[in-house]
Design goal:
Blueprint lengths: L6 H10 L5 H30 L8 H7 L1 H24 L6 H4 L7 H15 L5
Helix pairs in contact: 1-2, 2-4
Length: about 130
């Protein structure tokens, strides 16, 4: 389902059909977007550690303990990416509900005159 459906459609369905708040739908879809990046980062980290002599051979306990060498850089990289995403979302005003709290103002005559002037001036080069 995830391979055949766009992430935006999943988020829209979660909000519309399941009445999930848009912040939670965004969180879920962002986590789904991070999965391929996380897998690519794990592959890069495994390659880098194998170049340094890392070996994941042995019994299950030894292999599990040896993955600490791989997990630490992955977690650090994921935290850095999530901090960057959080900062960019904060700068864009995500979740502040600024548009919902603002009263709607109807367009006046001056607004329509300026809008018409912009349309005329922007289409003028195509009149020839």
């Amino acid at each position: 389902m995830l391979a055949a459906t766009r992430i935006q459609d999943i988020a829209q369905t979660l909000v519309d059909r399941f009445h999930l708040p848009c912040e939670y739908a965004f969180m879920l879809t962002t986590a789904l977007r991070f999965v391929p990046n996380f897998l690519a980062d794990s592959e890069i980290t495994l390659d880098a550690q194998s170049c340094r002599g890392y070996s994941n051979r042995g019994n299950c306990v030894k292999r599990l303990l040896s993955y600490v060498v791989v997990i630490r850089p992955l977690v650090m990289r994921a935290v850095a990416k999530s901090e960057t995403l959080a900062l960019s979302m904060e700068l864009k005003g995500f979740g502040s509900n600024t548009y919902k709290n603002m009263p709607r103002e109807p367009l006046g005559a001056a607004d329509f005159i300026v809008l018409g002037l912009v349309v005329v001036l922007s289409t003028y080069p195509f009149w020839k």
